[in-house]
Design goal:
Number of domains: 1
Number of helices: 4
Low-confidence stretches: none
Mean pLDDT: 85
Strand order of the largest sheet: 1-2
Largest sheet: 2 strands, antiparallel
Order of helices and strands: HHHEEH
Helix content: 55-70%
């Protein structure tokens, strides 16, 4: 008979042996904003906000094209804020993930989607002069002159945001492969 309080089962293994410590080369806290990566992530959020505002301020004449631009802009904006907050609040040091690889995969995928969104926004802008029938007697342009100017600005900021994501991807690849 076993003494009281003991069992025939061995103690559970140490879980720290199965989960390697996180691999982080970016600093935590406000120090991340002093790095190139932190500054570029801040620019991604700023430019993404501008793209979001500019596209939303048009009548969205081509919802299939500009709907995808809005989806990419809002999703990338939200995920970039989450990614930045993970480092600002020090969660990166507590979560056992290869953050260098995660950084590369996130920014690489977002760059591809944002560059596609830029192309769709530029394509929408280029359709400015094509006619659009409202009914059998009235006809107008797809984009009014004011919306055309807003769409040009949205295309420029979408390109700038895609360049920022591309730059973040290059920095992340450099950190991951060193």
């Amino acid at each position: 008979m076993l003494p009281r309080g003991s069992s025939s089962m061995p103690p559970p293994p140490n879980p720290a042996a199965y989960f390697p410590p996180p691999q982080v080369t970016l600093p935590s806290g406000l120090e991340i904003l002093r790095t190139y990566s932190g500054a570029v992530i801040f620019l991604e959020i700023l430019f993404g906000t501008i793209v979001w505002i500019l596209v939303a301020s048009t009548r969205v004449p081509l919802p299939l094209l500009q709907g995808w631009v809005m989806f990419v802009a809002v999703t990338a904006w939200f995920l970039s804020i989450v990614f930045l907050c993970v480092f600002l609040f020090g969660y990166a040091n507590r979560i056992a993930v290869n953050w260098n690889q995660t950084d590369f995969l996130f920014h690489g995928a977002t760059f591809v989607f944002y560059f596609g969104a830029f192309l769709l926004q530029a394509g929408t802008t280029s359709l400015h002069h094509f006619p659009r029938k409202f009914n059998s007697t009235t006809q107008g342009k797809i984009l009014a002159d004011h919306e055309y100017n807003i769409s040009i600005a949205a295309s420029i900021f979408a390109f700038a945001t895609a360049v920022c994501y591309g730059f973040s991807t290059a920095l992340a690849l450099r950190r991951w492969r060193l």
